[in-house]
Input
Amino acid sequence: MLVKQAIIEFFIRNDIQYIFQIPGLHTLPLNAALTHHKNISIITGRHESNVIFMADGYARTSGNPGVIIVTPGPGLGNIVSGCMEAFNDDVPLLIIHIDTERKDIGKGILHGITEPETIFRHITKKTFFAADIRNLTTLLNDAYQETSSGRKGPVLISIPHTFFEKDIPSGLSSSKIEPEYSRTIAAGTEKDGLDSFFDKLSALLSNRKKPVIIGGKALMGNEAGRILDNICRTSSIPFLTTTGGKGVIREDSPYAFGNIIKKGVVQNILTASDVVIAIGTRLRDIDSKRRGVKINELVHIDIDNQWIDRNYPARLKFAGNIDKALAGIQSLLKQRRFEWDLKTLKALQVKEESALRNKSYGYAIINVLRKVMPENTMVVCDLNTPSYWSEYYFPVYYQKGFLMPRGISPIFYSFPASIGAKLGKPERPCIALCGDGGLLPSIGEMATIKQYNIPIVIFLHNNSSFAILEDAMADRYGIQHSMDLTNPDFIKIARAFDIKAKRTKTLKGLEQIFRNDITWEEPFLIEFVHPVSRPPWRG
Output
């Protein structure tokens, strides 16, 4: 079997339906072979930095690794920031780097770079280099499995382009495959046994009256959601999430109070609690501690011990199988009902957020969006005012319904990631929350959604500014308008791609466009023009 055929067989065997790419001279033999396989869809974008975000969005909503093919040299270099995001936010990606021939490095060959895997040493779980053609199939299988084993993340494989037209020799592999680089994370305390952990947890909870549960992204699974619903309903426990955990359970549930970074009622709940049980969350500094989240006493449960004790010391901890831990907590609390008055707390929060709607334009925007969008809409965020307000206050009702890049916080994420998100869950509506500063660099992907008929709704919040930075400059230094931007006519650009588009400057107009013009079955751009407003952490 030729190498290019073996790679395609690998795709078929692992039911890989989408491959995201920017082609080049080095990839053409594989591209030609893939044209004969109708069950594999090739999504060709316009820039590698966008393509890797597409794969990221696909992985987050589908639950399967996003697969990307990149060319050497500039192609590989363009995916660095996307790989950083995936590694720091536990997103499984398989990056297939079609490499130059290593023996020719130093001769001035096209895209020649010495040991390009070293660029990715600290932003991937593992990197592999196919030095021996006989190991290729085993290497691909190992790399694919590695993306989703333990803590998920990106894996890079370099395959010389000169392999494509060569036969894979029959017989055994020449030697044991070792990755070029492997990042090892200690498994943690599961070897000590769940029984011991639950004995300690039972003793700890025996004299506690007001526990709180915080859920993170690792809980995204229907069974986890059902167990948590049962625990919180029957035992009267408030449930909070991190940003990554939004949607683990319906946020309109009587015990659900939203993101831990909210002020008011949420912070009062944390202050009044006598123990916090954090499950499947890293409790990173930028996601919690820096946002003013205080935890008095912590039980921390996660898939490994990488993040345990990093920002909040844990009184009790467990690293291992989260599903087993959840089932154990459910059994442990079966006969317990705690002292929270959830009904009163919920009423206070409703009143609190009603007041926000009247005094904060940022909150008013997302309130309209929530009112006019289907419940199961997937919301893909960037780093802009509506996205931050959504992170704090937008209620999410379905799992994998809220995507926000919390790895390295890249500004150009939303639009390309929404393309992958929609492909990962084609039955659900999808909207990209973009700012004018974030959309323009990726606007070429309008050609992509038109070419492949991917029905993304692009919500463009245009304030002719890097608004978050403008707010910080004004607050810290008293400098106004230093982050102003000169923009094109976004409506004309969208229509140039044959994409329907409308502009409005009012909340009433925004609601009318959603109700009268949006079908969720075709690409559409809404431009909402409004001056810079305050971010949620400033009220």
Notes: Residues 35 and 42 are 9 Å apart (CA to CA). The longest strand covers residues 93-99. The radius of gyration is 24 Å.
